Amino acid sequence: MTAATTVGEFWETRRASDSTLPAEIPEAWAFGATKEHADSLLQLVLDGTKTGTASSVWDYEFTGESLPQVGEYSIILDGAGEPRAVIVTTSVEIVPFDEVTEEHARAEGEDDRTLASWRTIHERYWRLHSESPKGYEPDMPVLCERFRLVYGS
Fold it and tell me: How far apart are alpha carbons 48 and 148 in whole angstroms?
């Protein structure tokens, strides 16, 4: 079975139990840059701790991907690429890195959930894993996304 078939079957099963979900299969993706990171962040989503995420706007610009939109669904994959959750985006805001709020850091659910740890974790992440050659800058544009868990397994 291919990953696309697995995602398609997962979505059809979700739609069979929730007719309000759209027919079109949403984008499927994993949090983080490693299998372990994907699994640990997924667990925070499933536990209800993680209700937000942050992305580099520069990465979106570099890859040509569309920015998330309010009301958009996503299928969240685990570290093995298996679909495990469905989320819906509830808010999107672009702010400079150094203006991300304590509230958003808490919503991301990582480490001790403080802004200080959020800044340390995300600076390191974008220095090591940014898709854009711009990497990290203290005033880089950050997309702060909030979401709601619709389904998790």
Answer: 9
- Return the minimum-mean-pLDDT range out of 5-14, 77-86, 105-114: 5-14
Question: Over 50: is that where the pLDDT of 94 sits?
Answer: yes
**Cα angle, residue 110 at apex, residues 85 and 41 outer, rounded to 5°:** 25
Query: For the residues of 53-112, what is the DSSP string, one character each?
Result: EEEEHHHHHHHTPPPP-TT-EEEEE-TTS-EEEEEEEEEEEEEEGGG--HHHHHHH--TT
Q: Which two tokens stand for residue 6?
A: 């697995």
Entry pTM: 0.92
Average pLDDT, the chain: 95
Q: Which residue has the tokens 């739609």?
A: 15
